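Translate sequence into structure tokens.
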Amino acid sequence: MHESEKWVIDEIERMHSEINRMIREIVSPEQWTAMQQHKGFRPPTDVYETGAHAVVRVEIAGVKTSDLEISFANRVLTVVGQRRDPAEKLAYQQMEIRYGDFRTDVLIPWPVNEEEIEATYEDGFLVIFLPKKKRVHKVPISAELEEA
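Result follows.
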């Protein structure tokens, strides 16, 4: 291995450790443990912002809504589910579709109205709309009279 290749690998490992450290500061210990213990796959996921929402779009064709669970806590949206393989197969000629348990965790950087989160499932895509909070809570400042 060349010195430049070693540097790249070392840098990637450093960045991975730093990202894990930052996530541990944001999520609860229970969420961190669940994220580390998950066995399965992470479906393709898009996260984007509109004027009024943070939107998470997860590609999970073939999954029944009864096999899905969506939760939101500590600014982390979690989608957990299972894609079941309905066919009995003797031998594979090609295998690209992933079956079994899946999970995706998405850190939402915007304040969210948790009570108004909505989800739709159509054409193989789970789309979750997280309404952004519109108002900022202003904290009043009290001042004591200074004695002269």
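Note: The helical segments are 3-26, 29-37.
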